[in-house]
Specification:
Elements: E1 13-16, E2 20-23, H1 27-34, H2 36-39, H3 61-81, H4 88-99, H5 122-136, H6 142-148, H7 155-161, H8 167-180, H9 189-194, E3 196-199, E4 202-206, H10 210-228, H11 231-252, H12 261-268, H13 273-278, H14 280-286, H15 291-301, H16 307-317, E5 323-327, H17 333-347, E6 358-365, E7 376-378, E8 384-386, H18 387-390, H19 395-399, E9 403-410
Length: 415
């Protein structure tokens, strides 16, 4: 459904808690924000289950996308001041691309990304939404799609949307830090944006901005351990994932479970990207899913007849979370078997049910990946260097290596 476009005043000002008053740059940005597809992002939490650890982390994808769009306007202004030609059409397109970069996120953002649908990441769904919107808006999003897909000849515009130093990361670090209260995530986004340059069609950073980049990478590493991969957050996300997987298993075996019509369709099927391409109505059904569908169902599932789903739902709703242990070494098969047997006896579980109460896996934190597109510095002599090789200390190089930790989580036998 196309939103009402007959509103005279579309130059709105929004009071953002992170940046203060921000304005919408043009009419089409306002029209896209008004669309039901985008309004859905108000009902999807940015940080999944992190609010169970940081009570203030209740901000949404709606907040984040607006903030990233605001930073993009500042980046375009900065590059133009330095003499780089960015047309009005290109500016509008790159703003649309960053505004809609997360529109394909499903309920609880990354937590259920590979369980609501099968082998589809949110970027692929965002692209499907953008193509649908471009049809509704008479092709006005075509250039934004080119930039989003990295098919436009000005490569630096794509880098502003998606790279190791994009407006997406700059906003979510500051925003997530603000709402969680974890001050280590604060970065100097204004300074980094002012230090942006273009060299040979590539986004670079002036040499004097090296310490701001170092702070940015350190903040990212710390936020991953303290927020995104906080052990209690990980345990709660494992539980939410297991609730969904158990519900899918039951429904596929013929069990009737409460769910909204949209949610039930995705519980009954493992849709892949080809299904969305062949059946246009599927994207509209997906657009009706948000956090409330999941939470509403889990509240009801507390009283269902299936012991596994009932136990997991009660524990999650009442924040009786799995205990989690993290270490540098893999947990022994004997230790895992002990936890499984203990819970199997306590809850009187079957062999095929215990997998929902004991889980082990690995966490990987890589703040800067030298093997993919790098962050480059523009040196005073005009040369370009990878920031990890140009820094005058070893911090950035050390951050480029992935850190891996093993975890074991299991129910603590309580309700």
């Amino acid at each position: 459904m196309r939103p009402n476009l007959n509103i005279n005043n579309k130059k709105k000002i929004i009071n953002d808690p992170v940046y203060g008053f921000i304005s919408l740059p043009n009419d089409i940005i306002f029209d896209l924000i008004e669309h039901p597809y985008y309004q859905r992002l108000r009902r999807i939490k940015q940080l999944g289950m992190s609010h169970l650890v940081y009570p203030g982390a209740l901000h949404t994808r709606f907040h984040h996308a607006l903030g990233a769009t605001h930073l993009m306007t500042k980046a375009i202004q900065s590059l133009r001041r330095k003499g780089h030609e960015i047309t009005d059409e290109e500016e509008t397109a790159v703003l649309i691309a960053i505004l809609l970069h997360d529109i394909g996120h499903g309920p609880f953002s990354h937590t259920l990304e590979h369980d609501i649908v099968k082998d589809i990441n949110h970027e692929e769904l965002s692209l499907l939404f953008m193509k649908r919107l471009s049809e509704e808006f008479d092709g006005k999003l075509d250039l934004a799609i080119e930039i989003f897909e990295d098919k436009y000849h000005k490569f630096f515009l794509h880098q502003l949307v998606s790279s190791q130093l994009d407006m997406d990361r700059m906003d979510y670090l500051n925003r997530d830090s603000f709402y969680t209260g974890v001050s280590e995530g604060v970065i100097g986004s204004d300074r980094i944006i002012e230090m942006l340059e273009i060299k040979d069609n590539q986004l670079v950073v002036e040499e004097k901005g090296v310490y701001s980049i170092e702070k940015f990478l350190v903040a990212r590493r710390l936020m991953y351990w303290q927020v995104y991969m906080h052990k209690t957050v990980v345990a709660s996300e494992v539980m939410l994932t297991f609730v969904l997987r158990r519900a899918k298993e039951l429904i596929k075996n013929g069990t009737e479970l409460f769910a909204s019509p949209a949610f039930k369709l995705f519980l009954q099927n493992d849709f892949q990207v080809e299904d969305f391409q062949q059946d246009k109505s599927l994207l509209d059904t997906f657009s009706k899913l948000d956090d409330t569908d999941i939470l509403g169902a889990i509240k009801v599932w507390q009283e269902c007849d299936d012991k596994v789903l009932s136990l997991l739902s009660k524990q999650l709703i009442n924040r009786k979370l799995f205990k989690i242990e993290i270490g540098k070494d893999q947990f022994s098969p004997e230790r895992i078997a002990f936890e499984k047997q203990t819970l199997k006896d306590h809850f009187d579980l079957k062999d095929d049910e215990i997998k929902y109460f004991v889980h082990t896996n690995i966490l990987t934190n890589n703040a800067y990946n030298e093997n993919r597109e790098t962050i480059n510095l523009l040196m005073k002599d005009g040369s370009v260097k990878d920031v990890s090789k140009a820094a005058d200390n070893l911090n950035i190089h050390a951050l480029s290596g992935p850190v891996e930790k093993y975890y074991l989580c299991y129910s603590v036998e309580r309700l």
